[in-house]
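Weekly structure sync - notes
Attendees: PM, LS, DV (DV joined late)
Agenda: review two folding runs queued last week.

Item 1: First target. Sequence and structure tokens pasted below for the record.
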Amino acid sequence: MKRNKSILHLCEVILGVLMLILILNLYLIKLLVDPDISYTPMYRNLCLTLALLVFCMVLALIQRELLARLLNNAYRDVTGIHNKKSLEKKLQELNDRATTFGVGVMMFDLNNLKHVNDTYGHEKGDEFIQAFAYCLTRILDDHSFLARYGGDEFIIIQENTSPEELKHMDLQLSTLVQEYNTRTSLPLSYAVGFEASYRNHYFMMDDLINAADKNMYQDKFYKKNSRTATEQQKQSSQVIPTVSSEYLAEKIRLIQSQASGKLQIALISTDIENFHYINDKYGYPLGNEILNIVYEEMTASSLSLFTARFFSDVFISIADVSKQTEDALREQIQTMNQKICDRIRDTYHISFFRTNSGIYMIPNEEITPETMISCANVARRIAKKLISHTCLYSPEIDRQEKMQAEILHSFHPALENKEFEIYFQPKIRTTNQAVSSAEVLVRWIRDGKMLWSPDIYIPLFEQNGFVVNLDYYVYEQAFQWLRSYSGKLPEDFRISLNVSPVHFEQPQTFIQKIQNLIDSYGINPSFLTFEITESTYVNNPLAVNQVIRSLQNRNIQISMDDFGSGYSSLNTLKDLLFDEVKIDRMFLGDTISESGHIVLEEIFHMLKRMKKSIVCEGVETQEVADFLKQEGCDEIQGFLYYRPMCRVDFEKLMGC
């Protein structure tokens, strides 16, 4: 398009030069040849021709300008920025590219437009929109594309960018809006969400927009709640203020220096279980009164040297525990918590009220106050899972925390060094006892020795998202193995691969990654089964079904893992899209009771009528194996037959 514009401008210049030459020629003819030539018909005709050419050129320029403006306006709205039609064109252009690396999306939702329109009229509403659009244009650069795609919704597509640059643009906009609000009677407020696509964090355009949109609505929800809380807090009674971590650290140092070995002191961190629910159900004023009561009771404790509200519903006490054994200290903290709960229940009739406390004994050696606070908070979080709701930070907890920190710190170097190795646990077909498939597992091996158990590090990786990279690593290792040995495996052999719940937050990305790996390694999809846990299906059925349908269309089998682990229901079975159901070991045990026989028989009967394959895992006794064969189980997996084995041993087993 730029090339066409350049050609058009060149033609205009050439036409102008030719006309100038013609005018000069006429002038020279008149001046040099015959001063009276202007009275001849030829000269008059030349002048008329020149006038006609000038008129045509002016008319063409006017038409060109009008057409340019019409085309430009077709892609812009009343604010002067790109409209929805122009946005669709831009998105199509980006979708046609090979990758979206370096592309970022910022989405904005302008608040209170309806209120402005209803109260002050649509003309004022247009000014309101234009003011926000003006602020947006001031954060743009040469790589920016700004469009308005709804009444109060805007989008910036930023190329050659990064998350840090998008954050900087967000900060710029916030500053501009704040400055504008000091000069207007109709202040602007907005919600924003942004996301960028880069290596190891790749999005297709649709997913990129969806992620930014999701972040925008989270921001909108947060700001709305913050405004509501602020408004309600203004109407409520005074609540004990929070203290900064710096202030709290200084207070700990001061009391430590005063104690100087004479006192044994401890930090006690206490919170209110599900305090946000109390605020939502009963309102912020009552929530503030409850915070004040908790503070009063903790301050009144005979142990307390200093008590402060640290943040939200979390309180920190510095306590004198010199004359307390650990058991007596736990008991006294439980008594204090019970007193708080009784007072709240008696005053406000809130039957579900509960507090949790974590205790950290401050040692004599030099430890930073920040570490002490962290340890007390760790103990408080553990207390939530205990019957007593009180936990004393111990050497064992410290060991667990350090181990978890080491695991997380070691993950990326371990992945680069290929310390994660795939293992196989075979499954046998009940009809002929032959190995018919195998589940691919992962083990962390360093210097020939197995490190932590997967039961320790997999939940950690699921919490912080590392499991996504680990899963793709395992899939890639398994596909490499399949490419090498698929020709030596039985025709109907399959390997099973586990799918972590985190993938279903972005199902389309997961589907595309799997397809890319299949294409990259030239794998026949009929060798693959993906195992998805029943709990994942129950918590996110729409995303799971989307993945199931897409993978089944590629001839990949899907298995419901851990069936019977606590979520099973007839409703789950009713809408089952899975090809296979894998009965959890918790459902079986070492022996099966008479009632268990009946339940399993009926489940098997239903699954068979639904034409689902049945696999049972965790089989360790011949008694259970015989029962499963008799009832028509298709495959059995468990220590009775095979334990997980390294790839070399599995290759020997399969004769590869």
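Item 2: Second target, run right after the first with the same settings.
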Amino acid sequence: MAVALQQTLVVPLVPHMPSIFGTTVDTGSWLLTITLLAGAVATPIVTKLADMYGKRRMIMLALSLMLAGSLLLALTTSLALALTGRALQGLAAAVIPIGISILRDELPKERVGFGIALMSATLGIGGGLGLPLSGFLYDSIGWASIFWVSAAVTATILLAVMRFVPESPVRSPGSFDLVGAVVLSMGLTAVMLVISKGTVWGWVSTPTVLLATAGVVTFALWVPMQLRRSEPMVDLRTTASRPVLLTNIASVLVTMGMMANGLLTIPFLEAPVSTGHGFGVSVMTAGLLMAPSGLAMVAFAPVSGLMLNRLGGRVTLIVGALVVAVSYLARPLGDEALWQVVVLSTLTGLGAAIAFAAMPALIMSAVPITETASANGINSLMRAVGMATASAGTAALFATLTTTAVVDGARVPVPSTEAYSIGFLLCGLFGAVAAVVAAFIPTGGGVGSVPEPGRGTEKVVAGRIVLGTPRHEQVLGTVVLTRPDGQQVDWARPDFDGHFALAYPHDGRYLMVATARGWAPRVTVTDLAGEEAVVEVVLADRLTVHGTVTLQGAPAVGATVTMFEGTGEHTGHTTTDDRGAFEFALPPAGVYLVAAALPETGESRARKVTVTAESVAVDLELLRETNDAPA
């Protein structure tokens, strides 16, 4: 909750920035932007470090930085130092995804759903409590009081974490991809600046175009860089898997709806009655009327957790997205009384709470246990993208569709009724699309259920896949650990040298199934008991396209054999040995053409074959081609 509050604490104070710091409102708005930017950049990096070096350790680091930032803000009137303080506060955004992964590690199974739902729901606290709280403190005591309170709360939480939160024994081995982290930070900075500042700078202005181009180029370089890395900063293969990818897409859409709830509703409530749609309430009153929405997200967490345990992640996410959609689509019909606006706004918060409870469960069920923090970090990054996009989209909508109203005796431009109607309609469509996307998330293999927790007892076994070849080859495969009855415990994607790590709940007998591209899978029975040496799994049977070439029943020695894809691309060539035999490593699945010939004498033969995941035998009897023309 403390971390979520940092995002919105200064929102009501943007109009007061010129008097506080002696600057313009536009420059002062960087106190909002830099927090979101720092959080977006830091989250994937800090969560990756949490998986590698300790989740509790990284939470303490993030909270320490937030404490330092709060103290700096409380003690300065320098804009540069205030921006530094807000950036430090933003770095703590990683606490939420790391905390969710700790809940999976430590809580009993029947409490994991509730814990995930409660921590996920705290995202709504920022909008629900941050706006009225900061306005009250500023009006009553002054600017510095906001951050003295923030510092006191953060210090208390830090001490409580040190005292009560255990360190998870689950670790992801390997080295940290520093170059990948730097390039990712550059790309995220460019993209988030475009989303956050595009409306202010102009979408076709020079800074926006240059930053957008820089972001596209950076990610175009970063993606293949990560795919070539044995130990990447972000495992793009896992991130692009269907359950993770679809969950992240739904996360962006639902978060846009949640964020837009405050961005659309507060100005709607504050708009003068003369506009035909507003209620003319004060900033403080509007913030208080939005409080039920944020509080409902937390109050509804037990129900969200129960739904997660009973229905699974996919159904829970669909229900939450549909509630968000319905609440927005009903807004144009329910804006005649304050209570109607509050009820529908609160309903949006409830829908978001249900959806947010499902997202981490879906993510953690689809990734290795040793990568839960970093995978949740990417999901949190997607939420940050959704928040920034909602903010930029709302600003663009309000700037495009305006009317005039009398405020303090003067006519000023304000968003028109059409702007709000379109905003509500778009958010309703986002919720509906999120529900459709969630419907395609697969539910097999445990995905969508609350992952089984380790309750702080999990151990990690290190292993290595060894290929049965003297040549060095990259290992592209997976390792799955199951109980003797076949129930999955964990899985891992080895690095290019075959090294992997698997988490298991207690000592005992397990089945380890290892696969690698081009090699037959192998299952081994393994007794795991704590401090064993590296477990090696040898894959000895290479998958091939193989066969013999004959001529009149005898081996065709030295025949040229060539293999093509069905579309004509050359994939390899060889010559037959003294038995007429040939062999190719098994290529990716598809249709291929295998052709053999004796160039000196002219005999040849070709066959079309279909490659799946098994070795393919292709025997060819050479024939002499005849080209006699008809008489």
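Discussion on item 2: The CA atoms of residues 328 and 601 lie 77 Å apart.
Action: LS to circulate a short write-up before next sync.
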